[in-house]
Amino acid sequence: MKDMMIGQVARRAGVQPSTIRYYEEIGLLPSPTRVGGRRQYDAIIFDRLAVIRVAREAGFTLREAKELIQGFGSASSPPARWHPWAIQKRKEVQTLIERGHRMNHILETLLACECRQLEDCGRLAREHGTR
User: Fold this and answer.
1) pLDDT of residue 3
2) CA-CA distances (angstroms) from residue 108 to 50, 102, 112, 125?
3) Residue that is last in its domain, among 37, 70, 103
4) Maximum Cα–Cα distance for the chain, whole Å?
5) How far apart are CA 22 and CA 66, in angstroms?
6) 33-83, pLDDT tens digit by residue?
7) For the whole model, what pTM was predicted?
8) For the chain, what is the domain count?
9) What are phi and psi of 70, to 5 degrees?
10) In this structure, are residues 121 and 127 in contact, taking their beta carbons and an 8 Å threshold?
C-alpha cells in the first residue's frame, strides 16, 4: 500500500492525525514525502507506529522511545539497542509494583479502620507499618 494520506494512516493505526504530525515534529517518525503539499505515507509507517506503541505500553517516555528508535542500521541490531533499556525499565516497573503493593496494604488498613479517634488511627498505622 503506497501513497496513503495522513487520515487513512491515522484511521488504520488507531491514532489521531495530530499524533502522527507530533511524532514527526519531535523526530519519532521520519518526515513523509509530500505531493502537492500533502503528506503521503507507505505501509512502513505502520511498523514504526507499532514500535512506538509497544515502547509506550512498556512504560517508555516519548523521549526514551525516540532514543531507542533512532540510529538503527546494519551495525546495531534491535536487541542490542533494546536490551539495556528493557533491563532498566523492568527495574523501574518493579519499584512501581512494590509501591503499589504498599499502597494497597495501606488502603486495606484504612478500609478496615474502626477507630473512634484520630490517635487510634495513628497507633493502627504504626502497628501495620504504614507511614
Assistant:
1) 85
2) 38, 10, 6, 11
3) 70
4) 73
5) 12
6) 898 889 999 999 999 999 999 999 999 999 999 988 886 666 777 778 788
7) 0.73
8) 2
9) -70, 145
10) no
Domain limits for position 47: 1-70
Looking at residue 56, which CATH number applies to its domain? 1.10.1660.10
Backbone φ and ψ of 76, nearest 5° = -130, 115
Q: What is the reported pLDDT for 25?
A: 95
Residue 41: beta bridge partners?
A: 4
Yes or no: say if 85 and 64 are a contact pair by the CB < 8 Å rule. yes
pLDDT of residue 111: 84
Q: What integer best gives the mean pLDDT of the chain?
A: 87
DSSP 37-97: TEEEB-THHHHHHHHHHHHHHTT--HHHHHHHHTT-BTTB-HHHHHHHHHHHHHHHHHHHH
Taking the C-alpha atoms of residue 43 and residue 87, their distance in angstroms, rounded to an integer, is 31
